[in-house]
From TrEMBL:
InterPro entries: RVT-Znf. It comes from Hordeum vulgare subsp. vulgare (Domesticated barley). This is Reverse transcriptase zinc-binding domain-containing protein. It holds the Pfam family zf-RVT. It comes from the Eukaryota. Residues 99-180 form the Reverse transcriptase zinc-binding domain.
Amino acid sequence: MATRITLGDGAKASFWNDAWLQGQCPKLFAPALYNISMRKNRSVKEALAHDTWLMDLRSGLTEQMTDELTNLAALLDDVQLQPDEHDSIVWRFSQKGSYSARSAYILQFEGAIKFDCHHLIWGAWATGKCRFFVWTAILSKILTADVLLRSNNYFCPLCMRNLETTYHLLVDCPWSRLVWDAIATMTKLPSLELATWNDSSDLKTWMNMRFRLAQADNRKKVLTVMHLVLWEIWLERNRRIFSLDSRQINVFLKKVADEIHHWNMAGAGIPFDPG
Ligand SMILES: [Zn+2]
């Protein structure tokens, strides 16, 4: 059983502790930020006014906190309080009668956002943080440089040439293209091969076309590999920005191969040919 807050004026719901954002508690999205917040009991209304939740944070952000901050800030961007209505608690059930992150996401999708590709998220075998990342990337909510235009570095940290958009960074960057082609070979999944890409200019379309091109019994594997590699590219990008450290492509591919191995030990079922 799950409770979900339907937000009205935000006066009753607790900003950190209630499941009011995408059906989840912000402290679950951003545990490190929650830890350094000096005011953990503010209402949503108080916290959002003049970005008070940000002012409440003790100084000294770590890399993990920076990631949490960008993700949480992006989600908060879409929040609209309804000043004339009270907050209310709604009880919801997933199909199995128990709470799941999936039911919370779907509730959200069926609400404010028209999201027609649940299969791209839930068809993969992937960890929760990785699914969440791909979901926000599809919605173009990750803070690539085109979203964060007030930052003074607009360039893709992988190639240092193009404007960093979600699609460029994760798919279309020359560096990322080399990665995907190597991955297609490594996993023997032909729908990931560059030669089949003629078709997209956004992440959702690109994922959908790779998914549809795959044979039925390969579709889950294609999604799983896409989740793993999208996530690893994102980590590499953050490493370059926040740690001023970059990996050569062969070192990166070795890391991906290790991750595939780990995921497979846990049941992911990714085909793998070390070559
Ligand atoms: Zn690039």
